[in-house]
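The following record pairs a protein chain with its ligand, protoporphyrin IX containing FE.
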Amino acid sequence: MEWLCPAACLGLLLPLLLLLLISRLRRCRLPGEPPLDKGLVPWLGHALEFSRDAAKFLSAMKQKHGDIFTIKAAGKFITFLLDPRSYDAVLWESRCKLDFGQYARLLMDRMFDVQLPDYDPNAEKVMLRATLQSKNLPSLTKAMFFNLQTILLSDPSKPSRQWKEGGLFHLAYSTMFRAGYLTLYGNESKNYEDASGQAQDLAHSLEVYNEFYKLDRLLMKAARSMLNAAEKKEFGSTKKNLWKLLSVRSLNHRANRSAWLESYQRHLVDLGVGEDMQTRAMLLQLWSTQSNAGPAVFWLLLFLLKHPLARAAVQGEVEGIFRTRRQTIGQMQMTSQEVLDNTPIFDSVLNETLRLTAAPFISREVLQDMPLRLASGREYILRKGDRLCLFPFISPQMDSEIYEEPEKFKYDRFLNSDGTEKTDFYKEGEKLKYYNMPWGAGINICIGKFYAVNSIKQCVFLLLSHFDLELKDPDAKIPDFDKERYGFGMLQPENDITIRYKLKDQ
Ligand code: HEM
């Protein structure tokens, strides 16, 4: 091995030191600005720690700097605000100061190769919201119920009175994804109970799910531009396969197309978007609409399996519904909104599950230098060109000042002693407007929330009432989170958990 002489070492080190110096000199905290933490590595700043485990990194930054601070990551300065009492100042600020479209456009392009002319996320959300809520909700809920039954009960490979083993994450994600996909993008046959239509729906939805799952493994790295050459290749070919499966032409032939699909396609045509780009946008929407509910069902079922009291309470609630309606499990039709709205125990379990496992960022681009007034009365100056980010997972969701033992699952955390929903949570004696934010808030609130809640309920109730489910290893630990997913909605487990399941003897 050749050794470098001291002069050569100095020659290598000097430029590095110079870079370090320049990067530290280039930006410094001005009076009135939040604390600035640039990290030691030139340009990269804190990018590596941040993408490795954002929750751990941001919790440490909060300890060091308080509820607001600016970090540098991959050349970008991002200000994090972590006090829920101040979130309104961001959520309702005008779009000419804090814009949420710019970052969305960047991700759409990076992850899905989608570029839309005159893309206005706000107008698009307003238009699509109506197709997922109010008068369209009952037909979506009904379609989801039929499709869930197809996936869970008509698949010859699934329902059996013999014990089977499988991954709980795989079961939950594939069931919700496939039924959700059929509900929004349509079926093979108009009649949900037509056997040949069901067989084709089962095969097609499985093909879409399998391809999507491959893509999902790589999406977070794609969003951060961190794919290596081999991954880039796989990512590209998986997208192409999905574009084939979701081509506008094939979607046009499907039955039971949802109002959501009709409106979105019309919207793209109105924007003058060509067929290829329409298909790419369909894949982007597949991700927006189908990537969260499955992981939510996984965590919820896992918590029920690990907490027998919670499971008994939920099971009792479901059985109570049948009893009052004089129905047997076979006759169960979980499609009436009145029934779905009358499950306070399940609602508390769902809120608690999402509190522990939903971790979206709420991001804005700062378009002009501007003051930001926090609930404490203190004002900070935000700099044009920076990004502003809320991370409700750290606070309110995991904040020990708001929740006792925030890391623990307590199924009745969101229940009052009289069985009604608990909504009063406090920080430093102040009642909070935002105490749990899995669905985002303000302009960023999930437009599919009501449909998602109905679907999750239907899936869990169908599973609990038709199947015996148990952990293969009752002592199995709740898996850690896949930490690269912080910021992108529902978290996923680092590894699956094996369960045993069989059809109930009825
Ligand atoms: C547990 C399940 C779900 C959770 C936790 C969830 C959460 C969220 C969050 C936090 C956002 C805001 C993203 C942002 O603006 O930054 C969002 C947006 C959205 N959600 Fe959901 N969601 C769920 C299920 C669903 C379902 C089932 C649908 C299906 C219709 C849906 C449709 C959408 C759409 C269309 C958007 C807008 C995306 C965009 O801005 O482009 N969500 N969701």
